[in-house]
Amino acid sequence: MNQPRSEAARPVPVLPTGVTPETEPPAVATIGELRATGWQSLPVKAELRKNLLARLAERRPIVQGVLGYDDTVLPAIEQAIIAGHDVILLGERGQAKSRIIRSLVGLLDEWSPMVAGSEINDDPYAPVSRHARDVVAELGDDAPISWVHRSARYGEKLATPDTSIADIIGEVDPIKVAEGRYLSDELTIHYGLVPRSNRGIFAINELPDLAERIQVGLLDVLEERDVQIRGHKVRLPLDVVLIASANPEDYTNRGRIITPLKDRFGTRIRTHYPLDVDTELTIIGQEARRLDDVGVRVEMPPFMAEVVARISQLARRSPRVSQRSGVSVRLSVANYETLAAAAVRRAVLHHEAEAVPRVSDLESLMSSTLGKLEIESLEEGEDEEVVDKLMKAAVLQAFRENCPTEQLGQVVGGFEDGAIVHAGPDLASGDYVAVLDAVPALRQPVLAMAGSESPGMLASAVELVLEGLHLTKRLNKDAAGPRATYRSRA
Description:
By secondary structure, this protein is an alpha/beta fold. It is built from 22 helices and 14 strands. 42% of the residues lie in helices and 12% in strands.
């Protein structure tokens, strides 16, 4: 029995593995049926502009999961898309350049038709590859089409010194030659990443690392919008948006973008790190892994999360830290996760139900911090000293922002009466509850900061108050390994 035409001829959609479409592709299987629907072909830059303007009118964001750029980077990107420019994003590591580029795929139409079997997403109305031209010439309006999901219209390449022109543009396929085709036959071409991104977006990460002779191959793509492969007399008028990223250090020193190529980018946009602690904290909350399967409840006091964020903020202003390589937000995320892990370890050792990080756990951040900072030091071991100073400065700032200062005089007075407090990452949380009995003046400021009477939160608040009083030179501190003893300065 013959099936209805719409079911029998339903085209197989082109959809990358792991992508879940929002809608089903249209049940349109031939160019003739496509014409009957009234579908119009748009250049990819016009398609991006159309969908961007629709989002702006609805006040919907164009990029998901990128924070701190609403008044700086994102308006510049929107203007570049409206202007129809190719774009280069210039910024240090960890500034969400790749995430921004990949998010722009969401501005493409969800489904777009192409000539079935095309390797380069040929427009059914204006095919450019030899295969698609032959199919359309032979079958006319009966030529089959496929529907391509927007995620399949994106190509990306990390520029490395060994990247070849074949990777980017294409090469003659020796297997096709061995099958009997002539070298002059256009069908022997194996297309590179740029032609395969036709009618879509192609991204190059770390563009300055691309060899200069390979950068030359992109000149025609950006200006004349065509490619030439191995001297073939073939012209492929590609419809592609090129977006590149570069690190400023590579951009000016180690590698470079050749001047003619740099001139062909319509817009250069400078990215940046979070400008304030609140934005850094929001990003940490979004990106950090949750330890929900460790058997204890993890509670991060807001003031300890603030310490983590301030370490990164201070590092970005420190003359002892190389600002050329940058201080990525990944430092904040890794430190947050390490601090939580240190608290979980202690909670398990002491059979506690709650894991709460505290100031004495900051020593554990040395391993997660040193691997992500370039320290300007000349002597061995000096890098740890730099990181230690950053941590103390972050604790001091968090103490001043969060601790009620009007009651601290009474706390210092309690120590002048002879009180001595021991602290350390190996002490159980319950040990700190006794501290509040030994120094009653501590109770009110500690409760105000902890916001809870749980032993873990109280222990964390006690350590911040004590370390803050030490850093402001109102208490003495004797340190022996991870343990510390706080006493009066008298």
